[in-house]
Specification:
The chain is an alpha/beta fold. It has 12 helices and 8 strands. Helix 3 links the parallel strand 3 and strand 4. The protein starts with 5 loop residues before the first strand and ends in a 5-residue tail after the last helix.
C-alpha cells in the first residue's frame, strides 16, 4: 500500500503574522525531533503567511504549505479573492477545496467546487477535497448518499490521471468545532465507503493509492485510534493545529502504529 500518510493543519482565520511564524517554527522543530515515521505535514494557513512559511520550510521534504481556498476563475474583477495561479506563484503545493464552512457560509455548491478543482489542477496544485454530511443527514441515514453525491458532482468528470492528484478529507459536519467525534468505527465505515465509490468510478488501484483524511475534531487523545483504522490515512486538523504540542502529538500517534 503506497498511499501517503498526511497530517494537515487548517488554521482557519487564526494567528497574526508573527505568531503564525512562531507556531510554524515550533511545530517543525518538534515534529522533526519526535516523529519517527514517514508522514507528510501540510500547514493550511491564512494567505498572509503562505509566502513566508513556504520559504521557511523550502528545504524540508516532508513539510508543505496549503492555501485554504482559491477562486474558480483564472483572474479578473473579484475583489478580495485569490487565484490558483497566485497561490502557486509563491511555491505553495496544496489547496483546501470544499470545506464544510465554505459550503455553508459562502454557499459553495458542487458545480462551483468542480471548477475550483479544475483550476487548481491546471495550476499543478494538489486539492485537499472535503466531503461530509450534516447531523440531520446522518440521523436520517442519508450520510452515504450525501457523500457519494458530493464526490460524483465535483470529481467524477476528472480523468484517471487527474484523480491521482486529489487528497480527500472526510469531515462529518456534526463533529467540526463541536467537540464531538465520529467513533473510529463510524469513521472507518465512511472512509471504506468513499474508497469503494472511487474504486467503482476509477479503479481499485487508484482508490487504494488515494489518501483519505479524517477531519472531524481529531486531537491527541483520539488520533491513534482513528489512524489505526485501515482506510484512514491521517487527519485534517482544526483547533489542535493551533498548538504546536497538540499538533505534534497527533503526528506521533503514527509512531505507535
Amino acid at each position: 500500500m503506497s498511499r501517503k500518510k498526511i497530517v494537515a493543519g487548517n488554521w482557519k482565520m487564526n494567528k497574526d503574522y508573527l505568531t503564525g511564524l512562531e507556531l510554524i517554527s515550533e511545530a517543525v522543530y518538534m515534529i522533526k525531533d519526535e516523529l519517527h515515521r514517514e508522514v507528510t505535514t501540510v500547514f493550511a494557513t491564512p494567505y498572509i503567511h503562505l509566502s513566508s512559511i513556504q520559504k521557511l520550510i523550502a528545504t524540508e521534504s516532508n513539510f508543505h504549505v496549503a492555501a485554504q481556498n482559491c477562486h474558480h476563475e483564472k483572474a479578473g474583477a473579484y475583489t478580495g479573492e485569490i487565484s490558483a495561479e497566485m497561490i502557486k506563484s509563491v511555491g505553495v503545493e496544496y489547496v483546501i477545496i470544499g470545506h464544510s464552512e465554505r459550503r455553508e457560509y459562502q454557499h459553495e455548491d458542487s458545480k462551483l467546487l468542480a471548477k475550483k478543482v479544475d483550476i487548481a489542477l491546471e495550476n499543478k496544485l494538489i486539492p485537499i477535497f472535503c466531503i461530509g454530511e450534516k447531523l440531520e443527514e446522518r440521523e436520517t441515514e442519508k450520510h452515504f448518499s450525501t457523500v457519494q453525491s458530493q464526490l460524483e458532482e465535483s470529481l467524477f468528470h476528472l480523468t484517471n490521471d487527474q484523480i491521482k492528484n486529489i487528497v480527500l478529507a472526510y469531515e462529518p459536519v456534526w463533529a467540526i468545532g463541536t467537540g464531538k467525534t465520529a467513533s473510529p468505527e463510524q469513521a472507518q465505515e465512511m472512509h471504506a465507503f468513499i474508497r469503494s465509490v472511487m474504486a467503482a468510478k476509477f479503479s481499485e488501484e487508484i482508490a487504494e493509492d488515494m489518501s483519505i483524511l479524517y477531519g472531524g475534531s481529531c486531537n491527541p487523545t483520539n488520533a491513534k485510534s482513528l489512524f489505526s483504522q485501515k482506510d484512514i490515512d491521517g487527519g485534517l486538523i482544526g483547533g489542535a493545529s493551533l498548538k504546536s504540542r497538540d499538533f505534534t502529538d497527533i503526528h506521533i500517534a503514527f509512531n505507535e502504529l
